[in-house]
Amino acid sequence: MTSASAPGKIILFGEHAVVYGRPALAVPVTEVQATARVEEASRPGVWVEAPDISLAADLASLPADQPLAAAIRGVLTALDVASPPPLKVFISSTIPVASGLGSGAAVSVALIRALSAFLGQPLPDGRVSALAYEVEKLHHGTPSGIDNTVIAHALPVYFVRGEPIEVLSVKVPFTIVIGDTGVAAPTREAVGDVRRLWETDKPRWEAVFDRIGEVARRARQAIESGSVSDLGSLMAENQSLLEQLTVSSPELERLISAGYRSGANGAKLSGGGRGGNMIALVEKGNAPAVAEALRGAGARRAIVTQVG
Ligand code: MEV
Q1: Is the N or C terminus of the chain more exposed, i.e. has fewer CB atoms within 10 Å?
Q2: Which of 10, 15, 278 to mutate to test the pocket of ligand 1 (most atoms within 8 A of CB)?
Q3: 139, 107 contact by CB (below 8 A)
Q4: Tens digit of pLDDT for each residue in 46-97?
């Protein structure tokens, strides 16, 4: 039996603009995890079980665009395994789906790791990330690759599409409270809507992406030089640019306001937007109060995580 886990993730700065080549910052969230277990089976074939999505089926019966099937087939092809031994694959996750926490990428990464290790050819993080990226394309069309990268490497990253991973060095750790609106918001739709907006007036929206990219660069400097107090206003600036891109929502803004009222130094949506999660930058000691305030304002759950 072999098992592997992968964390969730949050985007600190730069979502959406990252799809258009601007930099973004993302960090793993280890408080939530996807786990995959692979074991020998008595019956021939590859049996796939994912109770969270009510799936129990033979691999052969699953379509090419089913993400778990695509991840398994991707590993078998990459490792040149034409006929795998009888297997049972079991997947579970504590990462809420369609919430901006990277559940799809985390499930793929855990599965690719567990299966390649079970087959005696464990893949390095870069290959795991590349295979998970192929599955991400099924989830949301034109992904930048940031989710699979931060999750496969499980490190804070400064990410530019198509470029080698750059690890962020966090000089002074800081605390983030993640508030879940409970509104399921598939990234594919938000990304598609931003694309349609961009197509209506490319110069205008390219300028917005430039400003978001600039915020991400300044945030990197602040994180790497330990100027955590600069991050709050950068979050506010990033949120206002995301509002212009139409990916915010009343539920997200209610939680963001509740975050500020309870003492957060900055807050913004995180991920695709329209629902899903927001993040608030807080003093460590104030995290429980902010988490409580977010729940009071309607958050389905609040997670406190430390960056660095
Ligand atoms: C999703 O976590 C972040 C987006 O920028 C999409 C992507 O980068 O693929 C919204």
Answers
A1: N
A2: 15
A3: no
A4: 999 999 999 999 999 999 999 999 999 999 999 999 999 999 999 999 998 8
Q: Is the dihedral of CA 143, 145, 151, 152 positive or negative?
A: positive
- Six-digit token string for 19: 């799809």
Is residue 8 in contact with ligand 1, taking CB distance under 6 Å? no
Query: Do 249 and 295 meet the contact criterion of CB atoms below 8 Å apart?
Result: no
Q: Token pair of 181, please?
A: 């609106």
- pTM, two decimals, is 0.95
Q: What is the rounded CA–CA span in Å between residue 152 and residue 128?
A: 7
16-43: pLDDT as tens digits: 999 999 999 999 999 999 999 999 999 9
Cβ 104 under 6 angstroms from ligand 1: no
Q: Which two tokens stand for residue 218?
A: 């300044």
Q: What residues contact 52, with CB distance under 8 A and at least 6 apart?
A: 91, 92, 93, 97
Q: What ligand 1 atom has the least distance to the C-alpha of 15?
A: 5
Amino acid at the residue 209: F
| pLDDT tens column, 205-250 | 999 999 999 999 999 999 999 999 999 999 999 999 999 999 999 9
d(CA 108, CA 305): 23
